[in-house]
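Give me structure tokens for this 163-residue protein.
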Amino acid sequence: MSAEIILTGSFGVGKSSIFNRFIYDEFDDKYYGTIGVRVNGREMNVNDSNIQLKLWDTAGEVKQDKVPIAYFKSKDVILYIVDLNRPFTFKNVPHDIHYLSKNSPNSNLIIVGNKIDLIDEDRLKEIKSKEFPIQFDWLASAKTGENINELFYSIAEEYKEVH
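Here you go.
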């Protein structure tokens, strides 16, 4: 079984860092913008079944001029990444989520707040509150690895249940 997952969101939110942390268990503090799309996979064992997770790491922004919408349409999961430490990356979320939901209605859309290691406890409480404008499905850190494997394991587990 193989699940296709595409990572998207604004530039600099940590899509490639999440990709590298999950695929290679590596993190690099330097910023390298992604040109086009990188694809790689990793197998996870879920209840004695091997699930191949194929990740697509895209260039920043969701717009058609950066990443063709066709890339999103055939994916099982869309991971929309937001930088918790840079609130300006929140501004495109409602528009992007609407755009992705409309154009990829069969994909499971998951909103991930990245860089949890860079925010303090008060900010974390605010982000987790029901009143916060964005409800994150996952909070993670590509740098420390916090919740990265758990996120992808949950995707593999859900994929196994549905297929």
